[in-house]
Amino acid sequence: MDRDTFLTRVGQASLTSVLPSSPPVAAELSEYQADDLVAMFRARAQAVNAVVHGPISRHGAPRVVVGIVTGHDATKFMAWDDLPASGVASAMTSEGMERVDHQIPREEHGRHTLGYLDVDVGITGADAGLAESGSVVLAHGPGRPRMASLIPEVHVVLIEMSSITTTLAHWAAKNPHIAAETTNLVVITGPSRTGDIEQQLNLGVHGPRHVHIVMIR
Fold first, then answer.
1. Rounded Cα distance, 118 and 77, in Å
2. Is 27 exposed, middle or buried (0-12, 13-18, 19+ CB in 10 A)?
3. E-only strand ranges, 65-143
4. Averaged pLDDT, 160-174
5. What is the pLDDT of residue 106?
6. Per CATH, which fold does 31-216 belong to?
7. 3-class DSSP state of 39
8. How far apart are CA 110 and CA 126, in angstroms?
9. How many CB atoms within 10 Å of residue 159?
10. Domain map of the chain by residue range?
11. How crowded is residue 185: how many other Cβ atoms within 10 Å of its Cβ?
12. Distance between CA atoms of 126 and 158, rounded to whole angstroms?
């Protein structure tokens, strides 16, 4: 079959195809106590090479994040607009660090995007923490650039303890419409890791080398 015929058939099929119905969610998903969830989340996150800080107060978050960032000798950062704690970005600029704008001007697209190569740290919130895997869930959209969790070598995640749940299934059952309401949904489990042909594990090849999770009570 030639390429044009194949693409035509795919295009025609996409006009009439529909997504299958979602399978039913179990009526009762096993739950853990809140204290157990936090302890499990911390242990599992540390097991996949994430560094967990806290729990801390919202007021203490800027100081903790500044300490993390200065420990990596960072000079440029990118941050979400709606972080779980206020004052984080302003605290970093007060320390002399430059905040890189995530908005890309159409007329300067090429030059502007090259500047992202120098971003040292990305700071994001998290919509959920998954205790059984130590993962964080990020829903992206306006003011929540994907680049902040993908491009920099260091990713700092601020997460509210109340958003930590058992598994992705538990979170999805409580937020059934989230996939349709976001432009991109990502589950992050520790730093980026890649195994080569010699079965050597390398961190930071396709994403951040360091992941810091700041738990906010």
1. 9
2. exposed
3. 76-79, 98-99, 121-125, 128-130, 135-140
4. 91
5. 66
6. Rossmann fold (3.40.50)
7. helix
8. 30
9. 25
10. 31-216
11. 15
12. 6
